[in-house]
Backbone:
């Protein structure tokens, strides 16, 4: 094995931003919502079919969420699913000037 020196880089807290995705904030928010949906399913021991029966949301949608295939979902659709599972979403917004933020990273 080579003993190469690795560079340690501090992340921004948003992996999508670190990977320079165009819509990083939206992708991060969708991932957080999906994680909460998965937690609710696990907490209630719901299969995707049982979740469908309880919420009316297609079992295939729950399967996509479990597989982190979030491309077909909007933020409001994911929030709606969270609500149908019996939870509420509270969003706090903090704005940063994009140029100032990028200068720090």
Residues:
């Amino acid at each position: 094995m080579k003993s190469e020196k690795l560079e340690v880089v501090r992340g921004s807290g948003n992996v999508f931003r670190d990977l320079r995705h165009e819509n990083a904030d939206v992708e991060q928010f969708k991932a957080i919502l999906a994680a909460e949906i998965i937690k609710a399913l696990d907490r209630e021991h719901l299969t995707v079919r049982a979740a469908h029966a309880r919420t009316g949301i297609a079992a295939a949608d729950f399967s996509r969420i479990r597989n982190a295939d979030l491309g077909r979902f909007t933020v409001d659709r994911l929030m709606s699913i969270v609500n149908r599972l019996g939870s509420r979403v509270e969003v706090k917004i903090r704005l940063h000037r994009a140029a100032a933020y990028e200068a720090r990273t």
Q: What stands out?
A: The domain at 15-104 is CATH 1.10.260 (434 Repressor (Amino-terminal Domain)).
